[in-house]
Amino acid sequence: MAGREAPYQVQNLDNQYQKPSLRRQVGPKGEEWGLHPLGTDGLGRDVLLRLVQGARIAFQVGVTTALIAIPLGVILGCLAGYFGGRTDDVVVWLYSTFASMPSLLFILSISMVAGKGLKGVYLGIGLTTWVYLCRLIRGEVMKQKELTYVRAARALGMGHFRIMFRHILPNLLHLVIINFSIRFPSSIETEVIMSFLGIGVQGEPSWAS
C-alpha cells in the first residue's frame, strides 16, 4: 500500500467484501484492519470513506456547474428581454438550438471534447443547462421593463445596464435561487450517469460506482 495514498483509496485484498461492523476486525496474521461501518468493497477499500468522498464530488459538481450555467442564463436572458429586437432574436435562436438537441448526448459530446474527468463534467453540464433559466429571466425582464420604477429610472437618465442589473435583476433573484435548488440534484444525477458510462470522474470514487 502506498504511504501517501488517500484513506478512501487504500486497498487490502485480504480484507475484501467485509460485512458492515462497528468493531475493529483482525486479519489472519493478527493485524487490525480497522473500523468499517459500511463494510469494504472488492478491493478491500472502506465503503463509508468512499461514500463520503463521492458526496464531496457530487456537491462540487452541483455548485461548479451552477456557477457556469446561472450567470450565462441570467445575462443572456436580461439582454434579450430588455433590448428585444435583433438581440432577442439571436438569444432566442441560440437557446432554441441548444434546447433542440438531446441533452445527455450534447453533454457527452462536450465532455469528450473537453476531456474525461471533472473538467469535462463541469463544462458539459454547465454549458447545456442554462436554457430554462434564460427563458424564464427573459420573460420576466420583458414584463419588468414596462413597470413604473423602470420608466422612472430611464427618466432620471440611468444607463441600460445599470437599470438591468441594479434595478430589475434584484427583483428576479428569487427565480435564480429556485432554479439553483432545482438544477442542483439534476446536475448530480447527470454526473452519476456520465461517470457510470466512463466519461465522468476518473480515479476518484463517485456515487455512480
Strand content: 5-15%
Order of helices and strands: EEHHHHHHHH
Low-pLDDT runs: none
Global shape: elongated
- The share of residues in helices is 55-70%
**What Rg, in angstroms, do the CA atoms define?**
24 Å
Major beta sheet, strand line-up: 1-2
Q: How far apart lie the N and C ends?
A: 22 Å
Summarize the structure in words.
The protein has helices at residues 47-83, 85-100, 103-114, 118-126, 131-144, 148-155, 160-168, 173-196, and strands at residues 21-26, 32-36. The mean pLDDT is 82. Helix 1 crosses helix 8. A hairpin with a 5-residue loop joins strand 1 and strand 2 (32-36). The chain has eight helices and two strands; from the N terminus they run E-E-H-H-H-H-H-H-H-H. It is mainly alpha-helical. The relative contact order is 0.14. It has a two-stranded antiparallel ribbon with strand order 1-2.
Brief descriptors of the model:
209 residues, mainly alpha, 8 helices
Would you summarize the structure shown here?
With 209 residues, the chain is mainly α. 62% of the residues lie in helices and 5% in strands. A two-stranded antiparallel sheet has the order 1-2.
Write the layout of secondary structure elements.
Layout: E1 21-26, E2 32-36, H1 47-83, H2 85-100, H3 103-114, H4 118-126, H5 131-144, H6 148-155, H7 160-168, H8 173-196
Antiparallel strand pairs: 1-2
